[in-house]
Amino acid sequence: MVKRKIRALLIRIVLAALLIFMVMPLIMLCTNSLMGKQELMETCGAVLSDYGTKTRFSLFPQYPTLQAYVRLLLDSPEYFKAFWNSAILSVGVLAGQLLITVPAAWAFARFEFPGKSAVRFLYILLLLLPFQVTMVSGYLVLDTLKLLDTYLAVILPGVFSALPMFILSKSFAAIPKETIEAAKIDGAGNFCIFARIGIPLGMPGIFSVLVLGFLEYWNAVEQPLTYLKTETLKPLSLYLPMMVKEEIRSAFAASIITLLPAVLLFLCGRESLEKGIAASGSF
After folding, report:
1. What total of structural domains would you count in the chain?
2. Element of type H or E holding 145
3. C-alpha to C-alpha distance for 218 and 83, rounded to whole angstroms
């Protein structure tokens, strides 16, 4: 009994240490966003702008101020443009996945057709390929279609991503066959079954796809960096590194505001996200 208690205590200590290690960057981010310019330079200027020779950690700012937030929200139109670009890209990808991937996943999960095994293998292969492998071919295709340096250059590849199909097809396949057969006996057609049974019962998978897709494309770096050249089209993920060089205080405040939509969406959809991922345990 004593050994079990000691083991449980050690596990809790290790988990607490890991939690502190994971949360510490967020705490530092919040703290630095409330610092004045001089205090911020004394704290981390040696890393960010070659100011001083040492860095130090401060859990609370000595003289808290909201000046960085005021400057960002009232005097930084470039930030709002980048914020709007990120919203367009993320919402565009999610809307496309709802319109195309959801019905495609339903058809893949509930119907039999020639070549289904080959298509399944192709999707698994696409899941294993990182963006760097398909970057050149994707660039050439978008260049042929005259879509480079437009929002569609980032949105279209995201709409046809393999991960949403992977999750949704398993969520739809988990719907009991008896439910589908009972609906057919009552005279329901394929579209009616999809709209009134498939979508409601598959909502955990759909919501998990929306959460994962938003988190991915809200923070996407490689796709916008590769396909977008015009500065006014670039999202927050590319705008924030430039702010670090130009305005360090506003960069910390901008990072906090940028995190809020993703954090709120994750907290609201955490349960559905877990259910959707659990449903995709096998393909």
Report:
1. 2
2. none
3. 9
Query: Is residue 24 in some structural domain?
Result: no
Whether 59 and 82 share a structural domain: no
- Residue 8 lies inside a defined structural domain of this protein: no
pLDDT, tens only, 38-84: 777 777 766 666 655 566 677 778 788 888 888 888 887 888 888 99
Angle at 265 between CA 264 and CA 270, to 5 degrees: 105
- Same domain? 189 vs 53: no
Q: Are residues 102 and 39 in the same domain?
A: no
Alpha-helical (H) ranges within the chain are 2-33, 37-48, 67-74, 77-96, 102-110, 116-128, 131-144, 151-159, 162-173, 177-185, 190-193, 199-201, 203-218, 222-227, 236-246, 248-268, 270-279
Domain around 49: 29-65
CATH number at residue 118: 1.10.3720.10
Whether 40 and 144 share a structural domain: no
Tell me the one-letter amino acid at 281: G
Single-letter code of the amino acid located at 9:
L
Contact assessment for residue 276 and residue 171, using Cβ atoms and an 8 Å cutoff: yes
For the packed helices 162-173 and 102-110, what is the interaxial angle rounded to 10 degrees? 50
207 Cα distance to chain centroid: 13
8 Å CB contact between 246 and 67: no
Q: Which of 231-240, 251-260, 270-279 has the lowest mean pLDDT?
A: 270-279
Instruction: Tell whether 55 and 111 lie within a shared domain.
Output: no
Span 183-196, pLDDT tens digits: 888 888 888 888 88
Residues of the chain above pLDDT 90, percent? 9
pTM more than 0.85: no
